[in-house]
Design goal:
47% of the residues lie in helices and 15% in strands. The protein is an alpha/beta fold. It has 3 domains: 1-59 and 74-108, no CATH class; 61-73 and 109-459 and 789-804, Glycogen Phosphorylase B (Rossmann fold, 3-Layer(aba) Sandwich), CATH 3.40.50.2000; 463-786, Rossmann fold (3-Layer(aba) Sandwich). Strands 1, 2, 5, 6, 9, 10, 11, 12, 16, 17 and 24 form an 11-stranded mixed sheet that branches. Helix 1 packs across helix 4 and helix 10 crosses helix 11. The radius of gyration is 27 Å and the shape is globular. 48% of the residues are buried. The structure holds ligand 26V. Ligand 26V binds next to helix 6. Residues 115-117, 120, 268-269, 271, 317, 355-356, 358, 360-361, 430, 459, 546, 647-651, 669 line the site of ligand 26V. This is Alpha-1,4 glucan phosphorylase. It is an enzyme of class 2 (transferase). Belongs to the glycogen phosphorylase family. It catalyses: [(1->4)-alpha-D-glucosyl](n) + phosphate = [(1->4)-alpha-D-glucosyl](n-1) + alpha-D-glucose 1-phosphate.
């Protein structure tokens, strides 16, 4: 289909006519998008079948990556790149007079995630396929992904993220692979043939129906699967005895309560108690996933005792941790194994990544909730806890404090991380510092007890999406200089380092950056009605809004610059455009207030002609993968300024460096790994060290009030928050109070001056264009090691024991065979 432009154009027109009843002249962009998507699907179907059948081979370890979030981004362009048809399509569309970008933009950007954790899962799937490792990602098919964000009068407003409105061209509903999930009811036991058996009765039954999406490997004929589980009523024809003559209502309510499980993705402020629906989602996901894994495993006709050699189940943070008791349940209650054997197999099958050390983000559930909702799972968790505590007692007899601290069940709550640590064979952190903190602080006792379980796996990003697709001009330039090896071996980007002084390369990068900035300036004009100057420094902070990420510090620094220019209009300040984007969880009022503050400062600054040509502030609404792909290639500087010790890794930092944007950052998360890679000349590091932060917490010697009293400039900006200095009615007393009365938990005031100093160095450095782009080249050259291909290689070797599939020849599978399933209903 994609072999030549002529063939492609011919078949595209024919498909458009047959499937959509349209000719190019009267087709909408949606018609064109769906037609092209359909062609890609047909092109890869045989390879999908072939991959699945190789996966079903005996003696091949399959990876199952369970995650409540997969932030996939648009797939059309990525899929075209993977099958090697991107150029053909782009050129053919040009010849046909079709705007390719507009076609691509018709695809919704599914928001099945909050941020870094979800995008990491998506990058991992891309790498798993690129490396030919047989894998399935498992998630829920949330009807509404993360909310769409609008900024109205400077405030965040949330709208439903309805990504399925026009259907999803990539998914196949597989009704024949549905599973029953049981909630509530009660468990009884009896002795059968001398064996204690458990019976689950009076439960509510819900059907989990998988929708499969192909994950296409880069030019290697491998097509893995992302499996999204959808809830459906287990009984299709309901009969309710009419109460008050209205059975219809009952049916609708019943249906609604079932559908609600896969209705919404929870935003990451949902750590409060009582979100029973969230727990239902977690169990629904793991139960469906494990049942399907076990069903497939049985087709291999191997002994159940060999499960860990054939299947590696990875749980992404603690959200899917009920996979541990659920696998125990299946092995004992359905496969008839005894406790010890079931536990041994479970532990050897499951591995776990921790993604945060923040105590408020660590999950725990009330035992009572689990008992009511999942009675059999509760029994197993209870027993796991008993046995775990017993083994602790054996090792540390009499050390009650330690045992209480490590218990799975304590004070009426189930600690999900402890369950994960006890029931898996490996736990890993996501950057060097993060893993160190896990070992030395958060899970210190666990590390002492079972040091062999701990590993570090520094996060990575896929260079295919984050460089080749989103910044093709840089990708082509790199290839002009060092050839194409880096595409399959991204560490080869290091070959670029010897060209760092090459003026020709530097100038080429200057030109490309300027073009990318012009493109972003156009988006800013269109979205915000604001004119920004591509000659100014584009200084970007884009990420979820959290107090620890310190967007507030960035905003206060801008206010400081503003005051300085106003006070001394002759200040020579290199023009800057500060760009923000990101969502705050709907219930996280403090973070939402910071969004409002940024927009208020923007209103002040952008409307003041005296500073206007030196300073601009842009807030782009609705941050998402597609917007990141536009912003990152247009950035000169990016801010990664979390309070040291708080950001587990960060992956935005890696995406920016890969695009030659220079980091202004703290010694936190993967900034540290990046600093080591690029050297101190090519990153602007500032601020407290993690040890200092932890010391302050420990000894309580930090006094933001002292800073306020002694630094007049800081006093001034803080006072401006609570006076009528900023435009609009809003008062920022709560932010002011959090810094002074709340003792500035995130050390915003403490690090503000060092941020300012770092930024002054940036302004200086930027003015020597050659030196600046030398830094950019060193960053790009050293970004290859942060490709998720290496992260995945390390997971595969050191955690999953998974090896690549043998290389397949094109169309190895029977080409008449289509994947079993139905194209999802109204989608086409
Ligand atoms: C959740 C919550 C919920 C309660 C309020 C505070 C809070 C803060 C953070 C989180 C997120 C926890 C899990 C998570 O998304 N971690 C992110 O994982 C990324 C991939 O490993 C990593 O790069 C980020 O540094 C890490 O924050």
């Amino acid at each position: 289909m994609f072999e030549s432009r002529d063939k492609f154009k011919r078949e595209f027109k024919e498909k458009l006519r047959k499937e959509r009843g349209k000719a190019i002249d009267n087709a909408s962009y949606l018609d064109l998008y769906k037609t092209l998507g359909r062609m890609v699907r047909e092109e890869i179907n045989d390879n999908w079948v072939a991959t699945n059948s190789q996966m079903a081979d005996k003696d091949k370890t399959q990876v199952h990556y369970i995650s409540m979030e997969f932030l996939m981004g648009r797939m059309l362009k990525q899929n075209l790149l993977s099958i090697g048809a991107l150029d053909t399509c782009q050129e053919s569309f040009k010849e046909l007079g079709i705007d390719f970008d507009k076609v691509v933009q018709k695809e919704p950007d599914p928001g099945l995630g909050n941020g870094g954790l979800g995008r990491l899962a998506a990058d991992f799937l891309d790498s798993l396929s690129a490396l030919s490792i047989p894998a399935v990602g498992h998630c829920l098919r949330f009807k509404y992904g993360l909310f769409d964000q609008k900024i109205v009068n400077g405030y965040q407003v949330e709208l439903p993220g309805n990504w399925l409105r026009e259907g999803n061209i990539w998914e196949i509903r597989r009704g024949d692979h549905a599973h029953e999930i049981k909630f509530g009811g009660r468990v009884t036991s009896s002795h059968q043939n001398g064996k204690l058996t458990f019976h689950h009765e009076d439960y509510e039954s819900i059907l989990a129906v998988p929708y499969d999406i192909p994950i296409i490997g880069y030019k290697n004929q491998v097509v893995n699967t992302l499996r999204l589980w959808n809830t459906e009523p287990a009984v299709q024809d309901f009969y309710f005895k009419p109460i008050d003559g209205n059975s219809c209502h009952q049916v609708l309510n019943y249906k609604k309560s079932i559908e609600s499980i896969s209705e919404f993705l929870y935003p990451d402020d949902s750590h409060e108690e009582g979100k029973v629906l969230r727990l239902k989602q977690q169990y629904f996901l793991v139960s469906a996933t494990l049942q399907s894994i076990l069903d497939n495993y049985k087709l291999k006709q191997k002994s159940i005792h060999e499960l860990p050699q054939e299947v590696s189940v990875h749980i992404n943070d603690t959200h899917p941790v009920l996979a541990i008791p659920e696998l125990m349940r299946i092995l004992m209650d359905e496969e008839g194994l005894d406790w010890d054997t079931a536990f041994d197999l479970t532990k050897r099958t499951i591995s776990f990544t921790n993604h945060t050390t923040l105590p408020e983000a660590l999950e725990s559930w009330p035992e009572e909730t689990i008992k009511c909702l999942l009675p059999r799972i509760h029994m197993i968790v209870h027993e796991l806890n008993e046995r775990f505590c017993q083994s602790l007692w054996d090792k540390y007899p009499g050390d009650w404090n330690r045992i209480e601290n490590m218990a799975i069940l304590a004070h009426g709550r189930v600690k999900m991380a402890h369950l994960a640590l006890a029931g898996s064979h490996t736990v890993n952190g996501v950057a060097a510092l993060h893993t160190k903190l896990l070992k030395e602080k958060l899970f210190k006792n666990f590390y002492e007890y079972m040091p062999e379980k701990f590993q570090n796996k520094t996060n990575g990003i896929t260079h295919r999406r984050w460089l080749m697709l989103s910044n093709p001009k840089i990708a082509d330039t790199v290839t002009d200089y060092i050839g194409t090896n880096w595409i399959t071996e991204p560490k080869e980007l290091e070959a670029l380092e010897k060209h760092q002084d090459d003026v020709g390369l530097q100038e080429q990068l200057v030109k490309i950056r300027h073009e990318n900035k012009q493109d972003l300036a156009e988006i800013i004009k269109k979205e915000n009605g604001l004119t920004v100057d591509p000659n100014s420094i584009f200084d970007v902070q884009v990420k979820r809004f959290h107090a620890y990420k310190r967007q507030l510090m960035n905003a206060l620094h801008i206010l400081k610059i503003y005051n300085q220019i106003k006070e001394n209009p002759n200040t020579l300040f290199y023009p800057r455009t500060f760009i923000f984007s990101g969502k705050a969880a709907p219930g996280y009022h403090y973070a939402k207030k910071i969004i409002k503050l940024i927009n208020s400062i923007a209103e002040l600054v952008n409307n003041d002609p005296q500073v206007n040509d030196q300073l601009k502030i842009v807030y782009l609404e609705n941050y998402r993968v597609a917007l990141a792909e536009k912003i990152i290639p247009a950035s000169d500087v990016n801010q990664q300024i979390s309070t040291a010790s708080k950001e587990a890794s960060g992956t935005g930092n890696m995406k920016f460096m890969m695009n030659g944007s220079i980091i202004v950052g703290t010694n936190d998360g993967a900034n540290i790994d990046i600093r080591e890679a690029v050297g101190d000349d090519n990153i602007f590091v500032f601020g407290l060290e993690s040890e200092e932060v932890l010391q302050y917490y420990h000894h309580g010697e930090y006094s933001p009030f002292e800073i306020y009293e002694n630094d007049l400039k800081i006093k001034r900006i803080l006072d401006q928050l609570v006076s009528d200095f900023l435009p609009g009615e809003e008062n920022f007393r709560d932010i002011y109070d959090s810094l002074l009365l709340g003792n500035d938990e995130y050390f915003v005031l403490k690090d503000l001056t060092s941020l300012e100093e770092a930024q002054q160095k940036v302004s200086q450095a930027y003015q020597d264009r050659s030196k600046w782009f030398k830094k950019a080249i060193v960053n790009i050259a050293n970004s290859g090691r942060f490709s998720s291909d290496y992260t995945i290689k390390s997971y595969a070797d050191k955690i999953w024991q998974a090896t690549p599939l043998k290389t397949m020849t094109v169309n190895q599978a029977d080409s008449s065979q289509m994947p079993a399933g139905e194209y999802s209903g109204n989608t086409y």
